[in-house]
Structures are given as C-alpha cells and as structure tokens.
Sequence to fold (411 residues):
Amino acid sequence: MPGDSGHDITMVTCTAPVNIAVIKYWGKRDEDLILPINSSLSVTLHQDQCVSLTFRLLQLKSTTTVACSPRFKEDRIWLNGKEENINQPRLQSCLREIRRLVRKRHIDGNVSSSALSSHHKVHICSVNNFPTAAGLASSAAGYACLVYSLARLLGAEGELSEVARQGSGSACRSMYGGFVQWRMGTQRDGTDSVAQQVEPESHWPELRVLILVVSAERKPVGSTAGMETSVRTSSLLKHRAERVVPQRMEEMVHAIRQKDFAAFGELTMKDSNQFHATCLDTYPPIFYLNDVSRHIISLVHRYNQHCGETRVAYTFDAGPNAVIYALQQHISEFVELLKYFFPTETNGEFLKGLPVSSVTLPEDLTKAIGMEPLPGGISYIISTKVGPGPQVQEDPSLHLLGPGGMLKVNA
Fold:
C-alpha cells in the first residue's frame, strides 16, 4: 500500500518546501490553467533547520496529510486547524487532475489489485509554519505539498508540476529541490508549461540564504489580484515578459551552473527591482515594499560598494520581507551589519535557523555605510540554505489526521 493503513483508511503525510524566485513570475496569459506570460527561476529553500542556541526545530515548509477510504462520504480539507471549503476552484483542479492520472494508470493496467480507487473520497489536512500571505511563497509550498501527497497516496504518475501549477503557479517550482526553472511553454492546453530542475541542492553548497522578516501581516493586494491588474494596465510588464526575461533566464542558468555569484547576485537584484517597478507601473500602483525594505536595499548596495564586489544580493517577492543570498564566507559579517543597523527591540531570538558565527565589525565599515539605524525594523532573521524537494514522512505520529481520518485536536 502507498501509505500507513488503519482499518480501511490509508494515509500519507508529506512535506514540501518554500521556493524563492530570482527571476520573477508575474502575470498570466490563461487564468484558468495558470499559464504565465514569462518563464521564471527559483531557489528551493531547505525544509528543516536547527535553531541556534535553543536547538528547537525550525521548519520552512508545508506539511500535508491525505487520507482515503471507501467510508468517506465527501472530500474535506482542513488548513491550519480550520475546515475550509473543498470546492475552491484551484483545489478542485488539483483533485480532478490527480484523479485523472490515477484513472489513466488503471486504464493502462499499471496498478496492483490493492491500488486505491480514484472514486474514493479524501480527507486533507495541511499546515504551514511560516508567515502566510506575507510574500513568503506560502501558497506554492501548500499546493506542491497537496499534489505530492495525493500522488503518493493514490499512486498517480505523470508530470506532477503541471498539476501543482493549476493550484498556484509557483507551486510547480516547489516540486523540485535545488535550482528550478518554470518554462512558460507555448501550448494552449499548458502541457509544456512545467518545472524543470536546473541543478540539484548539492550543486552550490557555499550558497546561503537569509530571510529578513519585516512583517508577517497579510499583504494589502494579493498576488492573483495584483497580477490581473498588472497584465491589464502595465506596459512595462509586457516589455519585461517579451524583451527582458528570456535573456535573463539564459544568463541566470549560466550563472548558477558556473557558480558565479557576482552574476547571480546582480541578475537577482535587477529582476527584483524590475518586478517592483512593474507593480508601480500598474494602475493604480501596487506597493509591496515599505520603508524597511528600502533600507535593506540601500544597506546591500552600500555594503557591496564598500567591498568593491557583489557579496550580497536581495530579492523581494510580493511583500516587504527580504530574501538575502550570499556565500558562506560573507554571511557572518552581513548578519552583524543587520544587527547593527536594525537593532532588535525585543528579547526574543533575533537569528533563527542555521547558526552564524559572530564577528567584530570594522569601524570603518559602519562609517562607510553611513546609514541611521532603524530599531525594530526587522522582526527576526531566518538563516537557511538551498534544499531538496517534497518528502514523505515515514513516522505515523506525524500524521495530522487521526486514525478515523478526522482532524487531530493538536493539528
């Protein structure tokens, strides 16, 4: 059987990672199939990190348990402990496509006699443990986890990134670890709009990632609504999709394969800036960055200028939180700069995730940067690295649903 079984209920629990785009996806040419107007490329973040000092487990992922039984009367879903409407169109698209792939396997005769039926109802429970709807790719991890879990439970085979894309566009990139590109494709049915791994997570072990959590608040304009408005009103978006992104995709793939951080960092920052310029070119304009975001941008450029090279790069998705890329040898100094220019106002743990060594900042460095500190601007920092794609959790105690297929009280 494909999962942990109890009586006539079969259950699987999986996790899927967050991905952060370095070449941004913004705008669809088909809203129903979620087909993008340009290709994109992202870095998959590691799912599990050990928190420094306290050694608690910090996880950047979605976790989903899916149960299937002939006794279930209807499909049901719980998100972060609350039952939600299973008839949401994007959820239904994913369920429909997975069941179609299962039926295809049955028709082709590629299943065992004990295989689960696509007609059986499913119960789904999913949790995120990072700020949702604040520009931290929560929907991407969530839908990737849903699709991967359903596929493992029901035995679906095929291009799963195409299915995940129909839940949330960026979810297709969370189906792989490492460095992943989402090819926009040209087919009207979207069969060639799929994700492909450029390099695995082991390719560039020196690359480190910092997530600077500025705000966990829900963003004022959601990505779906923002994209629709940009496609309708921004002439810069059309220029970006047709004239800029194709060349940047080629250059970014080359920079990653050559492990050329200077090229990688410059492309990452330029693409982030153009994405947010597109948001400003939208009518009415969309403001995802805030004053703290702009201070972070200024700090990065002043630091790089002082060093005479690109040591650190930023990118911002549809929200004010920054994602910083740097090589291992430069992480400690930049974290100290963040502590200096964004001093914490609370007693909580400011740096979470992979440990970062403390260093003493040269006095000439802080003077050369010449910025006024912004106390409390950054709530906390998550230190992480490039990581793998979705994974099955073999420990039955990690299931979010109880033996009867209902929500656990502590899920």
User: Anything to note?
Assistant: The first strand starts at residue 4 and ends at 6. The CA atoms of residues 136 and 144 lie 14 Å apart.
